[in-house]
Amino acid sequence: RLVWWGRRAKDESIIGEEDAIRGLGGDVRYFQVDITDRSQVEAGYVQIQELGWGLQGIIDSALVLRDRSVA
């Protein structure tokens, strides 16, 4: 199970990624949440609770890559 938060609105790209995860047997939900906004994070946590999934861990991978090496 994966709860995926992102700043952008859910679009075809995100739907495609969700479908790929489901195709591998996973369960995923995308929610538009800006983690720099405490009220959005709190609302997002309520959404997780409403799913009944619980919270096991957090991976923060915020990144802007402009077609160049990270190094």
- Number of DSSP strand runs: 2
Specify Rg, calculated over alpha carbons: 14 Å
What portion of residues is helical? 25-40%
Order of helices and strands: EHEH
Task: Explain what you see.
The mean pLDDT is about 85. Strand 1 (about 1-5), helix 1 (about 10-25) and strand 2 (about 30) form a beta-alpha-beta unit. A two-stranded parallel sheet has the order 1-2. It is built from two helices and two strands. The protein has helices at about 10-25, 40-50; strands spanning about 1-5, 30. The relative contact order is 0.18. It has about 70 residues and is α+β, with helices and mostly antiparallel strands.
Q: Secondary structure elements and their pairing?
A:
Blueprint: E1 2-6, H1 12-23, E2 28-32, H2 38-51
Parallel strand pairs: 1-2
Task: Write out key terms for the chains shown.
71 residues, alpha+beta
Short characterization:
The protein has 71 residues and is α+β, with helices and mostly antiparallel strands.
